[in-house]
Structure formats: C-alpha cells, structure tokens
Amino acid sequence: MNIEKFIKDLREALEFEEELNLQTNLKELEDWDSMAAMILVAFVSDNFDKNLTTEEVKNVTTVDSLIDQIGRENFS
Amino acid sequence: MGAKITAIEYVFPERKITNEDLQDEFPDYDFKKFEDKVGIKCRYIVAENETALTLAVKACEKLMQRISRDKIDYILYCTQSPEYFLPSTSCILQDVLKLNKGIGALDFNLGCSGYTYGLSLAKALINSGQAKHVLLVTAETYSKFIHVGDKSNRAIFGDGASATLITYNPEEQINNFLFGTDGSGYDSLIVQNGAGKFPYNSEAEVLEYGSGNTYTENNLYMNGPSVFNFTSEVIPPFVNEVLVENRIEIEDVNQFIFHQANAFMLNFMRKKLKINKDKFYIDLNDGGNTVSNTIPIALKRYMSEQSDGSQKIILAGFGVGLSWCGGLIEIDNNI
Fold this sequence. Notes:
Number of strands of chain B: 15
Oligomer: heterodimer
Distance between the termini of chain B: 20 Å
Radius of gyration of chain A: 11 Å
Low-confidence stretches of chain A: none
Number of helices of chain B: 9
Shape of chain A: globular
Radius of gyration of chain B: 19 Å
Strand order of the largest sheet of chain B: 1-7-6-4-5
Mean pLDDT of chain A: 90
Strand content of chain B: 25-35%
Number of strands of chain A: 0
Order of helices and strands of chain B: EEHHEHEHEHEHEEEEEEHEHHEE
C-alpha cells in the first residue's frame, strides 16, 4: 500500500481530529484510547490480513513504528 | 432421543442509564462515538438492595407463567455475582421458587461463555438420563463490581437475568458443542480482590487506565484491547471448527448468534467469517453487554420476530476466563 494513502485511511478509520504523519506518536495523542487500539487492530487486519498481537500493539508508538510492525515490505 | 430449548424468558432491572445520562456525568468523553462503534444506547442496573438473584427470580417467575414449576428436576445457575460464597445460590432459588426438593441444583461460575456451556451441560444431563427438564438460569450484576469513575465499563456492561427450560425431546435439537479455555488470559477480565488469592482491601489505591478511567483492585478490570485481540484471533477459526463438527455449511445456517459484547468487534468477526449481515445477529442497543445473558436475550428477541418453523442457529459465547464455547441448535419461534 502507498504510505500516504495508508496514513490517510488510518486517520479516517480512527476518526482522529489530529493530522498524522510518520513521526506522530499515536499513543500520545489525546484521541488514543482502548477503542482506538481496537480500531487499529481491525484496520491492519482488514488491509493487510495480519493480526497484530497485544505485544505488537504495545510496541507501536509512531506511525512509522506501526509500519514496522506491519512489515515494511507491504508498503510502497 | 435428545434435548431441545423449550422456552426462554429474560428480565432487566428497572433503572435505565442512557448514554445521555453518562454524558452528563462525564462531559469530556465522547459517548456519541462510543454509541456508534460499540452499539449500546442504554443499559439497566440493579438498585442497591437488589442482587443477581432478585433478577433471576423474576426471570424464572416469568417462565413459570408458561411452564409448570413441578416439572423442573435440575437447576443450572450461571453467575459471577453469587448471593453468598456459600451456599450455592441455586439452592436458595429452589426454595424461593418453591420447586420440588428431589431435584439437582448447582452454580457454575462463567461469564460470557456461560450460556453455551449451560446448554451443553443441560443436554448432557438429559441425554445421560439424569434429568428431563433442566432450568438453566443466567444472572449477572457486574454493575456492583464497577468503579463509579470507570466510564468505559459503566458504559459497556448492563445487569440482567434469563431463565431457559431445556427438555428431553424425541429428536436431538441441541447438536454438537465445542469448547476452549486459555487461563493465561485470566487477568484480562478480573475482579481481583475479595476471594481466595487477595482479600478485599478497604484501603485499595485508586488506579487509572485508558482515558481517565478509575478503578481499584476491588473492582472489575478489563483489558479491552487484549480481549478484542483474543476474540478476533481465536473465535473465527473456532466457529469454522463448530461448522465442520456439525457437518453444516454457512449457507444452511439461518442465523449466527454470538455473545453480544461490542458491535464493532462482532462486525469485524462477521467479515472475517465471510457471513452476510442478514445472517449475523448484532443488537446490544438496549441492555448493553449483560455477560452470560446476551445469548438467551438475543435468541428470544431474534426468534420472536421469526415466522413459524424451526431455525438452525450457530451460537458462540466467549470472554472472561478466557473461556469459549459454541455449537449448533435447532429452535422454534414459540420459545
């Protein structure tokens, strides 16, 4: 998936007010809560057929780190 | 020879808490988004002097308006909110309902998977010739465990009780059930203090989780993301196993009725299983997540809108434990 599209779709799915970029730390955003964590897992599963484990979700900080958890080979 | 579900009744307590009520109490939390994603509009909670048993008695009396109490020869009482540590609440229920004394009665401690386990146990009692008319009761008051400042859990959980009569039947209508247990997830949904491992602590520290939710270790704690990860990963393949076990394809199932915990999560599972919306029951708007009550309530609500004739329903309960159980039933609209 194209990284820009990924960031745009991610923000839409999460219904976040704040704009996202690669360096945005998702966990530190005001809108981040357990519902966001749930939506994130569903979003990754729907788009990449990958089930993020609780551990992997814990390791996510920035959008860039999320891309790492999903696997950089999935992005263009 | 087999077993069938003959009748189901359920009750909610009187006090209704709407999302507007919660919004007034917690003005900084977005309950519109909650309603949209989780799919709950209101939940009902017991008064201070009421217990899960209060609700159970009401549900059972509602059932007894249609079936004779003298027929019941076994009580299976599913609760995580017992009247006392001992004796079993089912014994008290026998007395309050004035059922015969020559019957079996026991409590079992399960939550979201409780009703499906209960159906499988009732079937086993009947098919082994040990009972003919089993009263399966679910009764839960999680509201009593939840901290006043825990807006997430106060929004999600509701109280309720149900009573189901399962009777012996010439044809088997409670088909094959499968089970799952993963105790490594024991602390994903837990009330830590007050039992064997940790005593109740009147000076328990107030802790925080998520977006400003408060609780103490005397209260219910749920790790939402953890539970979501478990359900979304384990349950879809499990449901496929249940289909195979019952030698039935998705096309031949009339409806999939799962534990109604969270609309978003349920829809996610539906998509993973590639089941059409019209075959997949999602409705927890009125009542919220009532733990072991959600499946009997959903069954009753769904079947009341069906025309005559029996339907093939796949049930799946999953959650606290971690525990899960699912199977195929055939059921009529006169329940």
